[in-house]
Write a structure and sequence with these properties.
single chain; 100 residues; alpha+beta; two-stranded antiparallel sheet; two-stranded antiparallel ribbon; elongated
Length: 100
């Protein structure tokens, strides 16, 4: 039976081009989130808050995240109740589009 060599994941992650490929995939997903966000009323602020960031930590050199830092990101993405009318406002579900 085949066995996996200990530490092979770390060795593969440090091969030339792997970090660029992982960052490229994060950028592709961020662009999908941006594209899905363009129709929102506050799309300018929301769009500017979407970025790709390197994960923190000593063992995270190849990890990248799509970050949405807008203060209303949760309400914009998943929906909320209108403050004046109390009616539900549907979310744009842009973050989920980045997962497709």
């Amino acid at each position: 039976m085949a066995q996996v060599k200990a530490g092979i994941g770390r060795q593969l992650a440090n091969l030339p081009g792997v970090n660029d490929a992982v960052r490229g995939e994060a950028e592709r997903r961020a662009n999908k989130v941006r594209a899905a966000s363009t129709g929102h009323v506050l799309s300018g602020e929301f769009l500017r808050s979407i970025e790709v960031a390197r994960a923190a930590g000593p063992h995270r050199r190849q990890d990248w995240h799509v970050v949405v830092s807008h203060p209303w990101a949760i309400a914009i993405n998943w929906g909320h109740d209108d403050a004046r009318t109390g009616r539900p406002v549907r979310g744009i579900h842009a973050i989920e589009k980045g997962l497709e």
